[in-house]
Amino acid sequence: MTTTAADQAPGSSSAQTSSNASTGGVAPEPTDENVWLEEIYGEAQLDWVREQNARTEDLLEDADYAGLEGSILEVLDSTDRIAMVGKRGDWYYNFWKDQANPKGLWRRTTWDSYVTDSPEWDVLLDVDALAAAEGEEWVFHGATFLRPAAGEPYRLALVALSPDGGDANRYREFDVGTRTFVDPAAGGFDLPTAKGNVSWLDADTLLVASTAGDLPKTASSYARTAVTLRRGEALSAADRFFEVAEDHMMALAAHDSTPGFERTFAVDYIDFFNRRTFVRNGAALVEIDAPTDVNLSAHREWLLFRPQRDWALEGTTYPAGSLLAARFEDYVAGTRDISVLFTPDAHTSLQSWSWTRNFLLLNLLRDVSSEIRVLDPTRPGQAADGAAWASSLLDACPPLHDVNAYAVDDEDEGPADGGAGDDFWLVATGFTTPSTLMRGTLVRDGAGAHRAEEADPAGGAGSGTGGVVSSHTTVKSSPSFFDDANYEVQQHFAVSADGTRVPYFQVASRELVLDGQNPTQLSGYGGFEISRTPAYSGTVGRAWLERRTGASGGPGVALHSRGGVYVVANIRGGGEYGPSWHRAALKENRHRAFEDFAAVAQDLISRGVTSRERLGCVGGSNGGLLVGNMLTRYPELFGAVSCGVPLLDMRRYTKLSAGHSWIAEYGDPDVAEEWEFIKTFSPYHLLRDGVEYPETFIWTATSDDRVGPVQARKMAARMEAMGIPNVWFHEALEGGHAGASDNRQAAALQARSQHFLWRTLAGGGA
User: Among the three residues 132, 167, 194, which one is the final residue of a domain in this structure?
Assistant: First the structure.
């Protein structure tokens, strides 16, 4: 911890805080002169926002900025990007934004057309035209299809539309055959804008968890109840069949319509990491007996378990981060015949899994590089594999790359019947490798192994280890948006304050000079078990790696023309090494995430990559809390901080937007004992007079209904009132938690952050 870090919140004496802690009382709220900014849509508050925006735009939006924004928009609008698709029936669906369609097109095509260079798209919904016709700035948030009767095509879908890019959606029934919304007057479903989820039960019935109307909300602002909504029925009149406690995170309901395995589920999300799962048995909901911190998922006859902590069951302890399986009906009936499918080690973690019809794909990370395994539940595994089911390594993962495998359509027929049920997508990317989409097929050895021969000799691969033959061929590749051959990716490890080795990726010119003068952008997240993995970004390439410094680095310092260095830190709190890596930085241990990030910064400086004057950090959401702590706890390490859609006021975060749902991650500031540690990482309360802070850019969005704009506003206002120089603020008036609802807004948001960092770190200063 740096000597500029503070233990006390402004306005609180040590004696007062200690007294509350010892008595177990409610923690007092420090004086907050900016609480007036918490009224998000008040006229005075928005006037303050507009004034701040104008000031920041005057600073940043110069001639260089205009060129940068245009260059980023060119990447985002590129028609050469991969149009990712999802299969439903015989069609492949895609949502697409570009310059001509900023709000986007929902469209579909056939497989034969998709694999061509110029697919013929059948446009189902033009969101720009819809927004113009209805006078609403709609943002498309996906569609959920009704499973049709056997032999019938997919036709009806529930389309989710947000009026401002926030998390609240309006669900409207859409007929892809007629390309129109089903008229509510004729019985079409049309749910009011609200937070929640919707699932088809049958053609005339929905399962709905919603905050609309008089339906109750949790303290986290999400749905508290689930209802059964029949066609033509008002939501307020629907039967409530599930309810969770007000202080829990949210209720969710879903129906699995897989033929022969139809099941209805209800989930009580207690918090981000604990939940109770129920399955309907007749008119009753039966809880699936498992600890609340064991994640459950079902596929046909199988029930999978992933414990967040070590799970002791009938004399056996299954480690956190493992993957286990049992037969669904047997487990619900009370038997405990558990099979171990994956066990983590010090280097390897399970990130996700996906079922094809007959196989299970495991997406793993080994020291933050991808590894994919295919499991066959019909064949026993070998002791060396450590899995109860036969395991095969999918040969598709180059070092220091992120590769993900997932099913094309697990409900289709298998390959033996001519279907795509055991087909899988592979999406591969790296910092200097444009994304590639591949498609493959899994078959049991001896049951159609000739399919491996169909692999493209130039881009395909096949393997038959462990009784499963896989083949995959390249379908589409993204173009290069910068001269990626000039850059190399390295992985390094920094040593944190407690001795933990923390990996990080460094992307830099092959001719990098280790003289401490390279403008360096350090990015991180460190929360909610979310992993930061290698990923290609044309925006980072153009806006950072390929930009060039001027001829001088300041008085007496020669600065040769050079580009930027981009660094991603894999700090604790994330999921790079599984649940234990995440849990190591929860609540009272949050400081470990910040110590890890600071250790990476110090390592970059000690290795000669950069210096304090040339090093900046950037993060959004929980990453905004991270860099807010770099600003206040480690100001001596950074020359600039770009802090987006952030948590910063950790005393009131539970009372703002969806903040109550994150208590399991950070702690409850209303509890005096917990405020004792939370206040040590609340940037809003760590600001001090007389400290030389880095130049700071804080950005947010008015319509963000997850974190909200309030904490960013208050932080900027307090810093300015303290007379801290070079503090800049910008608030997008739409765009939700992403800060942008179309490519133009996204380009402006990214350009402001990148341009601020470059101006500050590459010599000019803001």
Answer: 194
User: Can you tell me the distance from the alpha carbon of 512 to that of 506, in angstroms, rounded to the nearest whole number?
Assistant: 11
Taking only Cα atoms into account, the Rg of the chain, rounded to an integer number of angstroms, comes to: 26
Distance CA 97, CA 139 (A): 11
Q: For residue 122, give every residue at least 6 positions away whose Cβ sits within 8 Å of its Cβ, in sequence order, or none.
A: 107, 108, 109
Residues 532 and 596 in one domain: yes
Give the pairing of strands 615-620 and 520-523: parallel
pLDDT digits (tens, 9 = 90+) for 210-252: 999 999 999 999 999 999 999 999 999 999 999 999 999 999 9
Distance CA 6, CA 9 (A): 8
Burial of 723 from C-beta contacts in 10 A (0-12 / 13-18 / 19+): exposed
Q: What is the pLDDT of residue 739?
A: 55
- When the pLDDT of each residue in the chain is averaged and rounded to a whole number, the result is 91
Residue with the bigger pLDDT between 522 and 448: it is: 522
Residue 735 confidence (pLDDT): 59
Q: What would the pLDDT profile of 251-294 be if each residue is shown by its tens digit?
A: 999 999 999 999 999 999 999 999 999 999 998 999 999 999 99
Alpha-helical (H) ranges within 107-175 are 111-114, 127-134
Domain that holds residue 140: 83-194
Report yes or no: 610 and 565 within 8 Å, Cβ to Cβ.
Answer: yes
- What per-residue confidence (pLDDT) applies to 538? 97
Domain count along the chain? 2
Is residue 755 domain-shared with residue 678, that is, in the same domain?
A: yes
In a domain, residue 678? The reply is yes
Beta-strand (E) ranges in 311-432? 311-313, 316-318, 323-327, 339-342, 348-355, 360-366, 369-380, 389-393, 402-407, 423-430
Count of CB atoms situated within 10 Å of the CB of 280: 18
Residue 6 banded pLDDT, cuts 50, 70, 90: very low
Report the alpha-carbon distance of residue 224 to residue 244 in Å, rounded. 6
Q: Other C-beta atoms within 10 Å of 97: how many? A: 21
Look at residue 82 and tell me whether its pLDDT is greater than 70.
yes
Residues with a catalytic annotation lie at 621, 737
Structure tokens at 344: 């983590």
The Cα–Cα gap between 593 and 502 comes to: 10
Could you say which DSSP state residue 708 is in?
Answer: -
Q: pLDDT (tens digit, 9 = 90+) per residue, 591-644?
A: 999 999 999 999 999 999 999 999 999 999 999 999 999 999 999 999 999 999
Q: What is the pLDDT of residue 460?
A: 40
738 and 615 in a common domain: yes
- d(C-alpha 177, C-alpha 154), whole Å: 9
Tokens 């159609």 — which residue? 448
Residue of 712, 692, 716, 686 lying closest to 701 (CA atoms): 712
Q: What is the DSSP letter of 531?
A: -
Residues 6+ apart with CB under 8 A from 429: 401, 402, 403, 435, 436, 534, 535, 536
- Measured CA to CA, the distance from residue 242 to residue 267 in angstroms comes to 9
Quick one: 55 and 174 in the same domain? no
Query: Residue 698 in 3-state DSSP?
Result: strand
